[in-house]
Write a structure and sequence with these properties.
The structure is a single chain. By secondary structure, this protein is mainly α. It folds into two domains: 10-140, no CATH class; 146-258, no CATH class. It is built from eleven helices and four strands. It has a two-stranded antiparallel sheet with strand order 1-2. Strands 3-4 form a two-stranded antiparallel sheet. A hairpin with a 6-residue loop joins strand 3 (197-199) and strand 4 (206-208). The termini are far apart. The relative contact order is 0.10.
C-alpha cells in the first residue's frame, strides 16, 4: 500500500460489490457517473473505486479469470460472503448505501416504485426488504444483458422483466442469484413461466414446446407466431460472459416442463 492510502473496510467493499453487480461490464471506468458518485460517498477517488471493481471482476467465477487478480484477502473474503448469500448481502449492502445517502430503506424502495399502503411495523419492514431485494435483482439482470431481451433483442427497459429461471417461491437460496435471472419482455417471461418454451442447458438453445409448434392448441397460430420463430435459435447471451444462466437451474426448468410440453 502506498503512503497516504487507507485500507478498504468491509462495509466499503460491500458497497463496491453492490455497484459491481449493477453496472454493465464495459462501464467500470473512472468516468462513469455511478462510480464517481460512490467515490464521493466513500471519500475515495473514482480511479480507486474503478480499480476495486476490476479486482472483483477477477474474482467472479462466471468470468473465468482466475489467477489474474490483485485482490486483497479481505476482497476475496467479502466477495465469497456475497456470492454465498445473495439475498442477505444484497440487503445489507443496500442498507449501507441508503445510510451513506442519508436515506431510509423505505425511501430507497419507494423511490423506484411506490409502496401500497401498509401498516407500520414488521409487515411493512418485511415488504420493504423484499422490494429492495427485487429491485437489486432487476438491476443486476438488466446490467448483465445490457437492457436487452434475451429472446427477441428488444431494448426497451420499461417493457423488460428480470425473470427467474427457478421461481422466487421455489428456491430461496437463488432468489437473488443473477445466474437465476433472464432479461425477458413481459410476454416471453410469462411464456417461460408456463413452460411454453425452455432453454437447453448445454448450449443455451431455445426449445419451444411442441404444442405451440404443432398447432395442437386453440391459440396455436398466435402463439406460434410469437414463440415458434425462436425455436432452435440461441439465447441472446450477455456480451461478456458475466452472470450467464446457470446450467443446473436451466436443467431444472427444462426437466419440469419438457415432458408436459
Amino acid at each position: 500500500m502506498k503512503a497516504g492510502q487507507r485500507l478498504w473496510t468491509r462495509d466499503e467493499l460491500l458497497l463496491a460489490i453492490n455497484l459491481y453487480c449493477k453496472l454493465p461490464f464495459g462501464q467500470m471506468h473512472k468516468g462513469n457517473p455511478a462510480i464517481i458518485q460512490l467515490a464521493g460517498l466513500l471519500d475515495r477517488t473514482p480511479s480507486s473505486v474503478a480499480l476495486k471493481l476490476v479486482n472483483f471482476a477477477s474474482l467472479d467465477p462466471s468470468l473465468g479469470r482466475a489467477g489474474m487478480s490483485n485482490a486483497s484477502h479481505l476482497d476475496r473474503q467479502v466477495w465469497q460472503e456475497f456470492y454465498a448469500d445473495w439475498s442477505g448481502k444484497a440487503l445489507e449492502s443496500e442498507q449501507l448505501l441508503a445510510a451513506a445517502k442519508h436515506l431510509t430503506l423505505d425511501e430507497v424502495a419507494a423511490a423506484e416504485e411506490p409502496l401500497p399502503p401498509v401498516p407500520v411495523g414488521r409487515v411493512k419492514e418485511q415488504l420493504v426488504q423484499v422490494r429492495v431485494n427485487q429491485q437489486f435483482f432487476r438491476k443486476m439482470v438488466m446490467a448483465a444483458y445490457d437492457n436487452t431481451c434475451c429472446i427477441t433483442g428488444l431494448r426497451q427497459p420499461a417493457l423488460l422483466v428480470a425473470g427467474h429461471i427457478k421461481p422466487w417461491a421455489v428456491d430461496v437460496a437463488n432468489r437473488l442469484n443473477p445466474r437465476n435471472g433472464l432479461a425477458l419482455n413481459a410476454l416471453h417471461d410469462r411464456a417461460f413461466e408456463l413452460g411454453l418454451f425452455t432453454i437447453r442447458p448445454k448450449d443455451y438453445v431455445i426449445e419451444v414446446a411442441a404444442v405451440v409448434r404443432t398447432g395442437s392448441r386453440p391459440d396455436a397460430h398466435a402463439a406460434g407466431a410469437l414463440l415458434g420463430q425462436f425455436h432452435g435459435q440461441g439465447l441472446r447471451l450477455p456480451a461478456k460472459p458475466r452472470f450467464l444462466p446457470d446450467p443446473e437451474l436451466l436443467a431444472w426448468h427444462r426437466d419440469k416442463w419438457l415432458g408436459a410440453a
